[in-house]
Specification:
Elements (H helix, E strand, L loop, with lengths): L4 E6 L13 H13 L3 H7 L4 E4 L10 E4 L12 H7 L3 E3 L5 H10 L8 H8 L6 H26 L8 H17 L2 H22 L5 E7 L7 H7 L5 E5 L1 H10 L1 H12 L3 E5 L12 H19 L5 E2 L10 H7 L4 E3 L15 E5 L5 E5 L4 E2 L3 H5 L1 H11 L4 E6 L6 H12 L5 E2 L2 H7 L6 E2 L10 H7 L7 H25 L26 H13 L9 E7 L5 E6 L13 E7 L2 E8 L3 E5 L17 E2 L2 E3 L4 E4 L6 E5 L9 E8 L13 H4 L1 E2 L1 E12 L3 E11 L5 E12 L4 E10 L11 E7 L6 E6 L2 E5 L3 E3 L3 E5 L4 E5 L5 E5 L3 E7 L7 E8 L4 H9 L3 E7 L7 E3 L1 E3 L4 E11 L2 E11 L5 E7 L5 E5 L5 E4 L2 E2 L2 E6 L4 E7 L1
Parallel strand pairs: 1-2, 1-3, 3-4, 5-6, 5-13, 5-14, 6-7, 7-8, 8-9, 9-11, 10-15, 12-13
Antiparallel strand pairs: 10-11, 16-20, 16-40, 17-19, 18-19, 20-41, 21-22, 22-23, 23-24, 25-26, 25-31, 27-28, 28-29, 29-30, 30-39, 31-38, 32-33, 32-35, 34-37, 35-36, 36-39, 37-38, 42-45, 43-44, 44-50, 45-49, 46-47, 46-50, 48-49
Helix pairs in contact: 1-4, 1-6, 2-7, 6-8, 6-15, 6-16, 7-8, 9-11, 10-12, 19-20
Length: 949
């Protein structure tokens, strides 16, 4: 059949109401029917460009017409029209979705079949296959898609069509004839002219560049040929990859690594990522987060010669702590979206400045990507491009796909860009952040807008320990911090450097089990340096207490090995002896040590016995009075000595969701229908009743509403003289495990307070941030604040908390799959800096027994001192050059949200000091006065300082 006209029937009345909302097969068929008609053999046969008609108003003249009917138009046709069209001499192609099948069906109807460029070249002996012809034919199909996209984009931007139809038709037909003649160069020239015509039409309503970002996702299953095929292309691409995957490529696919290296060196590829692996970043200790980034950067440098400069993640992992970490690691920009579950805020602008904690910002691309394997993405591309052109100062569309898994319309988009940037210019993200217009303003997202999916994902995947994995990570970090800090002090005092065990690359150090550490051994080595005994010296031995934190701690220490109780002088605040056990309450300054030994025999006994801290079901010291309920064993009330009203009550409970609503039921808040277990005490016992330390143990059962036993519990409450923290240890013996949604069914510490207007604050990256969210993720503390009181729940690494109503909070302990049964909690009363108490709960003062008394007259002394209590040190290490210790390096975090001037003092004079980024580059020289360095720190800023002796 000799075609005289090429027609597609569309399900619309005009291009103004062209449907761009279809997905799946409907979208595929619509795009295929439009673009298949642009095959060069069909164009040459008809000698005119394709046209379209409404599906409910098909053409009257049917003879020698090729008519394509997409699936979306079938329902608009009269039932008998296809038979009438065929009877009238038309070739009707219908019930086909894939474009290549439509093209094949249309070409098969040509009589005789038209020759192609491949036929000509084979005849001439120039080629043995039709690869070049296939590429050129695909370019014509891409031109058809581009024409549709430009027409739709014109209307999206509220313009009338301004394509030079005459020139476009002349160039298209000339190119089709050159294709059939076998003239490849002429064909490409005419195609280029066609795309330029479309570009000129687009430039009339948007005469600046818009950008297309190709984001290729990399996984362990896509490291071979498919990834190498992606790397072979000429279009600028971006590969989302972790350091762990890069190391796997180097070990298993050296050819892929070579191709990746070449593409990066030539600027065709940008590596997006950064960390070693995609761990649960928002809930991990910030030092663990930084270590993971640094490990990833080392891997990138070793294998590719350069670190990543754009941050991105496939799995959820956005947090307000990131901007300052990324900025000080040298990143140009970040992707402020992830492709996993979870919730994150979006900005009205596609490219924006993301300001996080510390008032440090980084440029981000915040528009979630389109699925490049979904035809619906390309059907809607014009609408999305138009929306970005309207509202974004840098018009951008991101398309994401796995290697080898992109729609052929995505290939069309690449082909279009290789001729002219009609629909956008492909660009690497490193060039995008370097060369496009910078955001005019910064955006600071509230921390409550971020919500991780980790807990629910753990339960859905039937993985164990959805809660305790984070507890273990924070306990591990506390142990490592203590050990590393004490090792640093040993080396700074002239001791020898230890030989730490190299970490196992396969070990997940972020969310694994608690690794053994040796802070006690380091404390003993430190004690030997502080003592420096002379020959024949018989100095008495005692307990050396070393505080690795930068803030002072008050601790109760078991000193039963001493012959006599220590004297209450110097760092020793109080002592007691009962049941053959000796205990002392000791004040240890920040980054300091205190030594306690046996007291003098002549210590007079007090005239009046000191009041015990525990009696009956009450614990009381100078700052609080804690009453336990005799029937339930729960915390009935906590009073202070000023306000005299109950500030907090707490109990253990199993929460179970209420019945699911049926269709037609009135919606009710799940908190109203949920049921909680009740506590029944079997006994309350005072186990320590001294003047220095009070301890009460309550044991009992958790019962359901019918009185059936759900679990047994043991609670241990400890209160130290002068302390503002009630220590609360919980052990559960569970018979009925929670099932289902972990945010609806769980065992928890359930807390209640009286003030409806109390504000909830919690830690984000060790800083205090206010939140009104119903679900709170905080690994250190949740604090209640009013004008007069501050009460903090110290959670010991248990990250997930659910607010119930206005005056209750559930701190989750056990969900489905959780194996941990012992938990350390705490409640602080009017502590100005709860992060300090929270860190102390995870791992506080290190005690080294059998230590000789340090040299000098004082039993307590500091080695470093930070004068601002709201600033906490997170890291200490020696500053080495060629294995010589020249000074020290420290990282300091401002935790209270108020900046200021901080003075850091050392145990010896300092020569020079500077503030550096996390790559060691100087940010500012710091003033030094003797042993003191002065640092200006912003609110919530995390700074690194280097000082030389």
């Amino acid at each position: 059949m000799k075609f005289e006209e090429l027609i597609v029937l569309l399900p619309c009345h005009s291009l103004e109401d062209f449907p761009t909302h279809y997905e799946g097969a409907a979208a595929e068929g619509l795009l295929a029917a439009w673009s298949a008609l642009w095959h060069p053999a069909l164009l040459a046969a008809a000698n005119r460009v394709p046209t379209w008609f409404r599906a409910d108003g098909p053409p009257d003249v049917l003879a020698n017409r090729l008519i394509l009917v997409p699936e979306a138009s079938e329902s608009l046709l009269r039932a008998d029209w296809p038979e009438l069209a065929v009877a009238g001499g038309a070739c009707v192609v219908r019930n086909i979705t894939r474009r290549e099948d439509m093209v094949a069906a249309a070409l098969a109807a040509l009589d005789p079949p038209e020759p192609t460029i491949a036929d000509a070249k084979v005849a001439e002996g120039k080629i043995a296959e039709d690869k070049a012809a296939e590429d050129l034919a695909a370019d014509f199909l891409a031109l058809g898609y581009c024409y549709l996209a430009v027409e739709l984009l014109t209307r999206q931007m509220r313009y009338m069509s301004n394509v030079d139809e005459v020139q476009l038709q002349n160039e298209v037909l000339a190119g089709a004839k050159a294709y059939l003649a076998g003239d490849e160069a002429a064909t490409r020239t005419h195609l280029t002219n066609c795309f330029e015509v479309l570009r000129e039409a687009r430039d009339r309503f948007y005469p600046v560049d818009c950008y297309l970002i190709d984001l290729t996702l990399v996984a362990a299953s896509t490291l071979g040929p498919r990834l190498r095929h992606e790397l072979a292309g000429d279009v600028p691409q971006n590969f989302l990859i972790t350091g762990e995957l890069l190391a796997k490529i180097a070990a298993q696919e050296p050819a892929t690594l070579e191709a990746l290296h070449l593409a990066v060196d030539h600027g065709r590829a940008c590596l997006v990522g950064g960390p070693w692996r995609e761990s649960e970043l928002p809930l991990l200790p910030i030092e663990a987060v930084l270590a993971d980034f640094q490990r990833g950067a080392r891997t990138f440098r070793e294998l590719l010669g350069q670190p990543p400069t754009v941050f991105g993640r496939r799995r959820f992992g956005l947090s307000p702590v990131l901007p300052q970490i990324l900025s000080r690691l040298g990143y140009l920009g970040a992707l402020h979206f992830t492709l996993d579950d979870g919730r994150f805020p979006t900005s009205p602008q596609c490219k924006t400045g993301w300001e996080g904690l510390g008032s440090i910002a980084i440029d981000t691309l915040g528009r979630p990507p389109l699925d490049a394997n979904a035809p619906g993405s390309f059907l809607a591309l014009s609408r999305l491009l138009g929306e970005s052109m309207d509202r974004d100062h840098v018009a951008t569309v991101v398309l994401a796909h796995w290697p080898g898994q992109a729609s052929h319309y995505y290939d069309d988009l690449r082909r279009i860009a290789s001729y002219a940037p009609v629909l956008g210019k492909f660009m690497t993200l490193s060039d995008y952040f370097s060369n496009t217009t910078r955001p005019g303003e910064l955006t600071r997202f509230k921390n409550e807008k971020y919500r991780s999916p980790y807990l629910r994902q753990t339960v859905d995947r039937q993985e164990p320990d959805g809660i305790s994995r984070f507890i273990d990570a924070h306990v591990r970090q506390a142990n490592e911090y203590a050990g590393q800090t004490l090792e640093a002090l040993v080396e700074l005092l002239g001791g020898k450097r230890s030989n730490p065990k190299e970490p196992d690359p396969s070990e997940d150090r972020n969310c694994g089990k608690v690794a053994p550490s040796q802070p006690i051994e380091a404390a003993q080595r430190l004690a030997a340096l502080l003592t420096k005994p002379q020959a024949g010296d018989t100095a008495p031995t005692g307990y050396l207490l070393v505080n690795p934190h930068s803030f002072a701690r008050r601790v109760a220490v078991d000193v039963s090995a001493l012959a006599r109780l220590p004297d209450c002088e110097g760092p020793v605040l109080s002592v007691q002896e009962s049941g053959g056990h000796k205990a002392a309450v000791v004040d240890v300054p920040g980054m300091a040590f205190a030594w306690i030994g046996s007291g003098s025999r002549s210590t007079p006994k007090p005239k009046k016995p000191p009041r015990p801290l525990a009696a009956g079901n009450v614990l009381e010291n100078e700052h609080m009075k804690v009453s336990l309920n005799s029937e339930s064993g729960a915390i009935q009330s906590i009073h202070d000595n000023v306000q005299r009203y109950n500030r907090l009550s707490a109990q253990l409970a199993l929460r179970q969701p209420g019945p699911k609503p049926r269709p037609g039921d009135v919606w009710r808040d799940p908190d109203e229908t949920a049921t909680y277990s009740v506590m029944a005490a079997d006994g309350i016992e005072v186990t320590q009743a001294g003047p220095s330390l009070g301890e009460i143990v309550s044991r009992g059962r958790l019962l359901d509403q019918q009185g059936q036993r759900l679990a047994g519990f043991t609670q241990r409450f400890r209160l130290v003289r002068g302390s503002r923290v009630l220590e609360w240890d919980v052990e559960l013996d569970i018979e009925r495990s929670p099932q289902g949604d972990p945010w609806e069914s769980y065992y928890a510490a359930r807390l209640a307070w009286r003030d409806d207007f109390a504000e909830l604050w919690h830690d984000v990256g060790m800083t205090s941030q206010q939140s009104e969210a119903r679900r709170i993720e905080a690994p250190h503390f949740v604090e209640l604040r009013t004008d007069k009181i501050r009460t903090a729940i110290l959670v010991g690494g248990s990250c997930f908390h659910r607010r119930s109503g206005e005056r209750m909070l559930d701190s989750l302990l056990v969900v489905q799959g959780e194996t941990r049964r012992y938990f350390r909690l705490g409640i602080s009363v009017d502590a100005l800096h709860p992060i300090q108490a929270a860190l102390d709960l995870l791992g506080g003062v290190v005690v080294a027994p059998n230590s000789p008394r340090p040299a000098g007259t004082s039993a307590s002394n500091w080695l470093f001192h930070v004068d601002a209590k709201h600033v906490v040190a997170t890291h200490w290490e020696p500053l080495r050059v060629d294995d010589r210790v020249l000074g020290f390096r420290a990282r300091l975090m401002e935790t209270a949200g108020r900046g200021g001037r901080v003075r850091l003092r050392a145990f010896r004079s300092i020569s020079t000091a500077r503030q550096v980024d996390f790559q060691g580059q100087t940010l500012v020289e710091l003033p030094v006065d003797g042993d003191c360095v002065t640092i200006d720190i912003a609110a919530c800023e995390w700074v690194e300082v280097e000082a030389t002796w």
